[in-house]
Amino acid sequence: MLYRWPLYSGAISGSISQSQHNKTGSNMPKLLGAKLKVKSAPKLNGVVLYEGPSILDGAPIAVIATLKSSNAKTGDMVQTWIIRSDMHPLEALDLGADSSICGNCVHRQSTGGACYVNIGQAPAAVYRTYKAGKYPTFNLADHAALFTGRKVRLGAYGDPAAAPFAVWQTIADLCIGHTGYTHQARHKAFDARIASLCMVSADSPRQATKYQQQGFQTFRVAMAGDSLMNGEVECLSDSQGLSCLQCGLCDGTKQSVAITVHGTRAANFNTALVPTINI
């Protein structure tokens, strides 16, 4: 008598004799008890959302989303980083090439501004990982679940206006909430649709008033001891200790916000105060 014996799943079955079957069968308990060592897939820490020319000046940039954050102020939001794709962030800083990702922001460190981002830390680490090829390119079918049910910060470093609006709209649609800020409202290449997802940053009461009259929600950097303008609320991180994850006001649609200038370079910033009337 002949027996059919599948060698392994998906293999072609072969014929063996009764004696061969008995000999082979004696080894089966050992084979069944063996443990297969399955190599797990590498942990995914982020994805590349965009590679291409900067909307602001045409230079090559990349947008990276990282999936875990220990930032106490923002909470564990998905963080996005806009960087030059052809040079280290510190090199871009030294050369003034950060204009490709930060535009005409007055807080750029390359122009002596008060930007609080430590460029040699997180942006540099993201750049190194990106250049090592460890971030796969975003694919909606494969990676949508990474963003579903999450909140995302548009621009942990760099200005969202440097990348195409469609990049941000796609991610914002997947997430349950987002925050974002842009300093490019006066840039000649500014896509005004960005303001539907981001706060328009303002650096004086006069500037905030102008942008609000254009229909934008503003995020105003203020001096210590300044007052709030009509229609503004103080950043709830400062006033109530909430994280951005908990708050969610800064999505470009809800409310104008003011915050006291902060960070290690805060002394580099100076602006007018909100006019007050003594009664």
Blueprint of the fold:
Elements: E1 3-5, E2 14-16, H1 18-25, H2 28-33, E3 46-53, E4 60-66, E5 78-84, H3 89-95, H4 99-102, H5 122-131, H6 140-143, E6 151-157, H7 165-174, E7 177-182, E8 199-202, H8 205-213, E9 218-222, E10 232-234, H9 236-239, H10 244-247, E11 256-260
Parallel strand pairs: 5-6, 6-7, 7-8, 8-9, 9-11, 10-11
Antiparallel strand pairs: 1-2, 3-4, 4-5
Short summary of the structure?
By secondary structure, this protein is an alpha/beta fold. It is 24% helix and 21% strand.
The poorly predicted ranges are 1-26
Strand content: 15-25%
Bulk shape: globular
The biggest beta sheet is recorded as: 9 strands, mixed
Give me the side-by-side strand order of the main sheet. 3-4-5-6-7-8-9-11-10
Helix count equals: 10
Class by alpha and beta content: alpha/beta
Task: Give the rounded overall mean pLDDT.
Answer: 85
In total, how many beta strands? 11
Instruction: Write down the secondary-structure element order.
Output: EEHHEEEHHHHEHEEHEEHHE
Helix fraction? 10-25%
